Amino acid sequence: MENKLTRLLARKPFVLLDGAMGTMLQKEGLKPGERPELFVLQHPEKVTAVHRQYLESGSNILYTCTFGASRRKLANSGTDPQTVIRAAFAAARQAADGFAGERPLLALDIGPIGEMLYPAGMLRFEEAYALFKEQLLAGAELGADLVVFETMTDLGELRAAVLAAKECTNLPVVATMTFEAGGRTFTGCSAAAMARTIEGLGADALGVNCSLGPDALLPIAREIAASTSLPLVVKANAGLPDPRDGSYSLTPALFAQQMAAFAECGMRLAGGCCGTTPAHIAALRDALAPLAPAPQPKPAPAFCSATRILPAGGVHIIGERLNPTGKKQFQQALLDGDIDYILDQGLEQAGAGAELLDLNVGMPGVDEPALMRQAVEELQSVLSLPLQIDSSDPAAIEAGLRAFHGVGIVNSVNGDAETLEKILPLVKKYGAFVVGLTLDSAGIPKTAAERLAIARRILDAALSYGIPREKVLIDCLTLTVSAQ
Questions:
Q1: CATH topology of domain 4-288
Q2: Which of 62, 200, 271, 289 could staple 235 via S-S, CB 3.0–4.6 A?
Q3: pTM (two decimals)
């Protein structure tokens, strides 16, 4: 879908982002331990001056001074997200209004909440969603051109943020996580898993910010570029800080030289994070001017959890013991709400070599959507395997997809139009794969030609919802020779 961000990307080989806000505000009097989100209320003119310097250095997008403007982070501060976001947008808009060059886009900048999500912490997914929703609605009302979620380390938290943006606003979404030198976030999320998961949720651009200097981030950016077809974002630090005085190691010229190397892996949006200044952005503008971003190859399809990638091609072992059909002990465990039994079964299958787990918790007498959500949350806390959500109830399917932090599979749809209309929109919304059964309301056709016709019907319907062809898995339902 075309929006202000995609139009900007269509006009420019590289879209220039801004640099660090905190670094610049420290030069304007922000004291150690003070918060930029409160500084913008007290000294809006100084924030405007920083924005204007970045504009004069070539920035096409300004990040508002709202990184920590969540209700949780502002607790006991005497203010609220709406007040901070309103002041921050006024400061950014004043800089844009007074700029003689091309008008920039204003990005609502949202950082992490600062609490770990369940089960690592106490913050529940829907609580995180509500906190992000409050910020998003305030920014959208004030005319934000896009939203940027940055410096995230938890894929679950980033998923809550992106879903809130997609469900509650029409804002284009840019998402970046911060990675350690080994290519994973603090919570263990891999760069490839992040890229595949967040693209599946409908983000407009994604990549990496903060973390490290450009040289150390290059391998991570390459991994992201190989895992997504979306525009690649890189907002690196100016090297590493000196522990004695906090100064960063890279001069503007050296920063720009190292950042130019990202053109080879398809970087489209470039800027700076901690330690960078307008001088770094101006040098980056000049270094990118003679270059063009390399085309990104189409990534091979893959299933994933937050920590494991499983290529979709070839033969894989799917553990199917998490299904109550014909299993009296499992049925009783579901009626009793015995999640430990589910976890034991999942761990046993993983230990026996399963590469994915099929999860079905449907039976009379249970709240299937609630139980599906709980089972997914608990399974992914102890296992790294991708999950296949198995149900005939669309509400249970959505509950499972919403809780799963990765790219999973929906099992299943068939050629019945009503089934396709209910389930395929969920597959698209959450970026999942889907199993298509070659049967319909009349049952399993006896001939291969008839089953093939149903497979084509399923594929055509999936494509009409925007589900990529490679995410449709057809189950041929071959009939046995002995019986038929």
A1: TIM Barrel (3.20.20)
A2: 271
A3: 0.96
pLDDT bucket at 120, cuts 50 / 70 / 90: confident
Closest listed residue to residue 175, CA positions, set 226, 132, 125, 123: 132
Residue type (1 letter), 337: G
State both tokens at 245.
């005085």
Strand partners, 65: none
pLDDT in tens, 408-447: 999 999 999 999 999 999 999 999 999 999 999 999 999 9
Q: Where in the chain is the domain with CATH 3.20.20.20?
A: 302-475
The answer as to CATH 3.20.20.20 being correct for domain 302-475 is yes
Token pair belonging to 469 = 């062809």
CB 12 within 8 A of CB 270: no
CB 335 within 8 A of CB 374: no
SS (H, E, C) 386-404: CEEEECCCHHHHHHHHHHC
Q: What is the pLDDT of residues 290-344, one digit of tens each?
A: 999 999 999 999 999 999 999 999 999 999 999 999 999 999 999 999 999 999 9
Torsion angle (degrees, nearest 10) of CA 307, 309, 310, 313: 170
For residue 13, give the DSSP letter: S
pLDDT tens digits, 152-192: 999 999 999 999 999 999 999 999 999 999 999 999 999 99
Q: Kind of pairing, strands 309-311 and 302-304?
A: antiparallel
Asked, as a colleague might, if the bond just before 32 is cis with ω within 30 of 0, I would say no
Half-sphere exposure of 292 (CA within 13 A, CB side): 4
Parallel, antiparallel, or unpaired: how do β-strands 472-475 and 302-304 relate?
unpaired
